[in-house]
TrEMBL record:
InterPro entries: THAP_domain_protein, THAP_Znf, THAP_Znf_sf. Residues 115-129 have a biased composition (Acidic residues). This is THAP-type domain-containing protein. PANTHER family: AGAP005574-PA (PTHR46927), THAP DOMAIN-CONTAINING PROTEIN 8 (PTHR46927:SF2). Residues 151-199 form a coiled coil. It comes from the Eukaryota. Pfam families: THAP (PF05485). One of its GO terms (molecular function) is DNA binding. Residues 108-130 are annotated as: Disordered. It comes from Knipowitschia caucasica. Residues 1-79 form the THAP-type domain. Keywords: Coiled coil, DNA-binding, Metal-binding, Zinc, Zinc-finger.
Length: 240
């Protein structure tokens, strides 16, 4: 059956994806506080009546593994035209009424049929599923925000890497130009070396030819002085 809030003038509907909690029928004292704060002391709830989460303070809940649960000591205190529990309770001790005790408690335990227990478990699972849906929705929004931030950071990183790649390409181009210049210089040096070796070989051949032609140094005629009419020579003397 569809759930609805039993608090007067509360318009919370199951379609709002809100949480609904059953009355503590097994705890007469806490049930009396619930009814008193609601202003319905003469009303007797059943296991098919609920109160939505709007009437509980955040301190009445506990979160375990992303699922919000209502504490076993929780008491609703948020109602229209009423004050919080600490202001509305009288200093007199609270005593349980006879109808509640006689109807819901026999000794210290409450006897439930298997059908009732199964139905209550299904209702609790419904409450948990609603809370899980809300938590998962928050997680999806949080993950979307994180992904957006990561995308911006990634784009900034890509831009920075592109700048570094451009700088490295410029350095590489300069190194290639220097390498080409060095290769040209080496080629010129090799060519100069070949020319020098050729000249050296030519000089050696000329020296050898000259040495082979002149066998006796004394036969060399040296021109000492020469003018327009006469010239003087140094002729070596014949050996006796």
């Amino acid at each position: 059956m569809p759930k609805s809030c039993s608090v007067p003038k509360c318009r919370t509907k199951p379609d709002d994806r809100k949480s609904f909690y059953k009355f503590p029928l097994h705890d007469p004292e806490r049930l009396h506080l619930w009814l008193r704060n609601m202003g319905k002391n003469a009303w007797t709830p059943t296991r098919h009546h609920y109160i939505c989460h709007k009437h509980f303070t955040p301190s009445n809940f506990t979160v375990c593994r992303g699922v919000r649960y209502l504490k076993k000591t929780a008491v609703p205190t948020l109602f229209k035209k009423t004050k919080l529990l600490g202001e509305t309770l009288s200093p007199q001790p609270i005593t349980s009424t006879v109808p509640i005790v006689s109807k819901y408690i026999q000794g210290s335990k409450v006897s439930k049929s298997p059908e009732e227990e199964e139905e209550e478990e299904e209702e609790e699972e419904d409450d948990i599923s609603v809370e899980s849906f809300n938590f998962e929705q928050q997680q999806v929004e949080h993950c979307y925000h994180k992904n957006s931030v990561s995308k911006e950071q990634l784009e900034a990183t890509v831009v920075e890497l592109q700048k570094k790649v451009k700088i490295m390409q410029q350095h590489h181009h300069r190194h290639l130009e220097k390498l080409e210049g060095l290769e040209k210089a080496v080629g010129q040096l090799r060519q100069s070396k070949l020319l020098y070796e050729e000249r050296l070989q030519c000089l050696e051949r000329a020296y050898l030819q000259a040495n082979a032609t002149i066998t006796d140094p004394e036969q060399i005629v040296t021109v000492i002085y020469e003018d327009s009419e006469h010239f003087y020579t140094n002729v070596p003397r014949e050996r006796f």
